[in-house]
Amino acid sequence: MPSALYSTTLSAFRAQGWAFRPVSGLEVIEADFEAHHTKVPLHVQVYDEAGVVSVVARAGFPVPASHRLAACELLMRTNKELNVGNFEIDWDHGTVMYRTTNIFPAGQADPRIIAGLVHTSVAEVDRLTPFLGEICRTPTGELLLLDIPRLMQRHDLLPPPPETMAAS
Question: Which of 31, 35, 56, 161 could form a disulfide bond with 20, CB atoms 3.0-4.6 angstroms apart?
Fold first, then answer.
């Protein structure tokens, strides 16, 4: 029998009209969102006993080993400016993730907050994707010349403000 927190999480997805896949035997939902720049895979896990909902969105491509140091600088500088959530990288595989988590008091989960965590996660991955792409397209021999703070000032790489997101 699913926990109340997982049921609320499922309700949040249904209320938004998002397509999702429950993971059998776990209190986990997976979904794919079409954002402005990329498709964003999403993983939502509920830890009922702790009252935790954790949302993890992934960039659609891995960062090559040769480019991970520059990508880490981008993620560190981006995290410094964030108010909610954080970017991470799986160093061994080059997977870039954005994680948001909320702890709900027992019986007080709010589907609007869960939807907000999902919106934020998808939007942040979509916002960062073109910057990561610029890093990954930089020839290895030119990485030392790449000015990450200057790259981050490029407004032409930012998506327009979101109106709505649709899961596919």
Answer: 31
Q: Residue 163, exposed/middle/buried by CB under 10 A (0-12, 13-18, 19+)?
A: exposed
By the 10 Å C-beta count (0-12 exposed, 13-18 middle, 19+ buried), 19 is classed as exposed
Dihedral pair phi/psi, residue 24, rounded to 5°: -60, 130
Both tokens of residue 136? 């990954």
Q: At what angle do helices 68-81 and 111-137 cross, to 10 degrees?
A: 140
Q: What is the pLDDT of residues 5-18, one digit of tens each?
A: 999 999 999 999 99
Identify the H or E element spanning 131. Answer: helix 111-137
pTM, two decimals, is: 0.90
Give whole-number Cα distances, 20 to 60, 134, 157, in Å.
17, 30, 29
Q: What is the pLDDT of residues 25-34, one digit of tens each?
A: 999 999 999 9
pLDDT on residue 48: 94
Taking alpha carbons only, the member of 126, 163, 134, 165 closest to residue 150 is: 134
Task: Please provide the size of the chain in residues.
Answer: 168
For 55, phi then psi, to 5°, come to -115, 125
DSSP state of 84: S
